């Protein structure tokens, strides 16, 4: 390990122990890399900023378990960023595929008015989801549009199961409030399956 890598490892440990100076050092060193990867993969500045926020929360949460023998901090953070971006891209695809499936069913029944209403409601739902904290949005989308159980999400994201359950519960409550503000009184489900435990 080079002297610079050793210094970064010490800073990472100090950051996880609560040092704001160490956090500033790690952030200033790696935020440009995270933004570069996320911007290139997602082609959306706001989403890239969300990913950057998520990645540094994960670095803070998992930094104490970082193992230098498995690769540099740069590689560790780059892989983490790529993984978060792929999760976000899969989330986008699930929304798109769910919308397309519903629209195909509506169109095949020749219900133009219902199709228009569905599209408006989907736009509002996506807008409301994007207003949620990123953890709540990810938990809701993964619960309703993927085959992952909440336990699998807990293991995949390296957080307690209770945390995932809280993200879903608070997220659904916030989503309902967002939709009510937008004029949709009922909580939309759009054929979403029951949340899998």
Structure description:
The protein is mainly α and 197 residues long. The chain has 8 helices and no strands. The protein has helices at 3-16, 20-42, 45-62, 73-108, 112-130, 134-145, 150-157, 161-181. Helix 4 (73-108) crosses helix 6 (134-145). The model is unreliable at 186-196 (pLDDT under 50).
Helix coverage percent of residues? over 70%
Task: Please tally the helical runs, counting DSSP H or I stretches of 4 or more residues.
Answer: 8
Mean pLDDT across residues: 76
Which class do the helix and strand fractions yield? mainly alpha
Low-confidence stretches: 186-196
Topology, number of strands: 0
User: What is the string of SSEs from the N terminus onward?
Assistant: HHHHHHHH
Distance between the termini: 43 Å
Strand percentage: under 5%
Radius of gyration: 20 Å
The best one-word shape is elongated
Q: Quick one: biggest sheet? A: none
Write the layout of secondary structure elements.
Elements: H1 3-16, H2 20-42, H3 45-62, H4 73-108, H5 112-130, H6 134-145, H7 150-157, H8 161-181
Task: Considering the chains and any ligands shown, give keywords for the structure.
single chain; 197 residues; mainly alpha; 8 helices; elongated; disordered C terminus
In a nutshell, what does this entry contain?
77% of the residues lie in helices and 0% in strands.
């Amino acid at each position: 390990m080079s002297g610079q890598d050793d210094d970064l490892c010490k800073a990472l440990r100090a950051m996880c122990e609560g040092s704001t100076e160490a956090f500033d050092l790690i952030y200033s060193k790696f935020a440009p890399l995270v933004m570069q990867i996320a911007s290139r993969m997602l082609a959306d500045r706001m989403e890239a900023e969300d990913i950057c926020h998520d990645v540094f929360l994960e670095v803070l949460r998992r930094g104490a378990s970082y193992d230098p023998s498995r690769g540099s901090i740069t590689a560790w953070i780059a892989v983490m960023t790529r993984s978060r971006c792929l999760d976000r891209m899969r989330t986008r695809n699930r929304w798109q595929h769910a919308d397309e499936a519903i629209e195909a069913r509506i169109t095949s029944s020749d219900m133009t008015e219902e199709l228009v209403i569905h599209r408006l409601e989907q736009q509002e739902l996506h807008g409301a989801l994007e207003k949620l904290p990123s953890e709540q949005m990810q938990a809701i989308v993964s619960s309703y549009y993927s085959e992952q159980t909440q336990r699998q999400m807990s293991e995949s994201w390296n957080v307690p199961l209770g945390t995932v359950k809280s993200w879903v519960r608070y997220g659904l409550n916030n989503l309902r409030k967002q939709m009510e503000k937008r004029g949709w009184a009922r909580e939309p489900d759009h054929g979403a399956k029951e949340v899998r435990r």
